[in-house]
């Protein structure tokens, strides 16, 4: 008779993903940046092997603590948000425990359960798609106060995020104002409020200008570099390709840059490019990227403030707050260049 099945080990995950054991460890623990494509291979290997990490051995903690469940290592652009949470939590007298959700619903539920097992008083969470089916019941079961950050939900809870729709509309309106009529959009991960809101902004800008939206110009790029690259290549292969592209997050925009380079398209002469989410090095690129800069640090700090308020008064009215993003006009949009004529676009 066969014995009990041995659980998957780190070495098994590393072998399946064709990476080193240390790379798997960095993905699991968020201890170092890992390239998006490599991280995706590790995530698929973890799921395929149903890997369950051992319960962490941590020293006993004295004092109060908050938990943060976010796709941190798998989205390094959340670094400023995490820093905002940490600094405000420290100022309020709380230690911070961080778990990476890797934007995976099941891993998110496990991450929150781990935080609660370490006796955090409350949790800040950037929810994954489908979180209400898996993670919300865990929080409700333990009657744990929580605040949603960056990604909003219909759930009755305190929330803080960015003005996604209006800022996305402003980016696309800018492209329309300088002459573009066929604008592609790289849309993010399905099921996220940020994806839906930025898509609405794209449509709103077209409607305000009296331009019909071509559904074929909106491609699902899944909030990843790989998705952004594939999405741009598919757009460029259309018989009537776009003259401008709106990347709805920075990872997809990196993919767009790779695709435009591979296909020898010049920015902005051949294809203009704007992005939601600013890059730390965006102004140093050539051409410099026109981008919407989110106030991630302020967003993280405000999430802690809302949580401290909730702990002090569990019956306080719910607050949903939107912080403004600032558009950094640089060169990639082409506003300093001559916009394409109708003849150039059609020819």
TrEMBL record:
It comes from the Bacteria. SUPFAM superfamilies: lambda repressor-like DNA-binding domains, Periplasmic binding protein-like I. The keyword Cell membrane does not apply. GO terms for molecular function: DNA-binding transcription factor activity; transcription cis-regulatory region binding. Keywords: DNA-binding, Repressor, Transcription, Transcription regulation. Residues 8-68 form the HTH lacI-type domain. This is LacI family transcriptional regulator. It comes from Kribbella jejuensis.
């Amino acid at each position: 008779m066969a014995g009990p099945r041995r659980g998957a080990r780190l070495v098994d995950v590393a072998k399946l993903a064709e990476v080193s054991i240390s790379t798997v460890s960095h993905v699991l623990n968020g201890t170092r940046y890992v390239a998006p494509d490599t991280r995706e291979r590790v995530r698929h290997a973890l799921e395929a092997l149903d890997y369950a990490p051992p319960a962490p051995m941590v020293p006993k903690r004295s004092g109060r603590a908050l938990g943060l469940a976010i796709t941190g290592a798998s989205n390094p652009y959340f670094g400023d948000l995490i820093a905002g949470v940490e600094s405000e939590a420290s100022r309020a007298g709380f230690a911070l425990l961080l778990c990476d959700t890797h934007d995976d619903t099941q891993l998110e539920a496990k991450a929150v359960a781990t935080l609660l097992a370490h006796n955090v008083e409350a949790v800040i969470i950037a929810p994954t798609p489908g979180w209400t089916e898996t993670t919300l019941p865990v929080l409700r079961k333990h009657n744990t106060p929580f605040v949603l950050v960056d990604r909003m939900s219909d759930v009755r809870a305190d929330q803080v995020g960015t003005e996604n729709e209006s800022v996305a509309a402003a980016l696309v309106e800018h492209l329309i104002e300088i002459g573009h009529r066929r604008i592609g959009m790289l849309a993010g991960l399905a099921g996220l409020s940020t994806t839906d809101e930025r898509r609405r902004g794209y449509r709103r800008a077209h409607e305000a200008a009296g331009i019909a939206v071509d559904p074929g110009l909106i491609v699902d790029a899944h909030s990843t570099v790989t998705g952004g690259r594939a999405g741009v290549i598919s757009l460029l292969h259309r018989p009537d390709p776009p003259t401008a592209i709106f990347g709805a997050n920075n990872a997809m925009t990196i993919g767009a840059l790779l695709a435009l380079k591979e296909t020898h398209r010049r920015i902005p002469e051949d294809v203009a490019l704007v992005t939601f989410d600013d890059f730390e090095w965006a102004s140093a690129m050539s051409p410099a990227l026109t981008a919407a800069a989110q106030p991630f640090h302020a967003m993280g700090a405000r999430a802690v403030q809302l949580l401290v308020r909730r702990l002090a008064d569990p019956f306080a009215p719910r607050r949903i707050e939107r912080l403004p993003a600032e558009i950094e006009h640089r060169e990639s949009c082409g506003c300093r260049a001559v916009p394409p004529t109708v003849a150039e676009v059609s020819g």
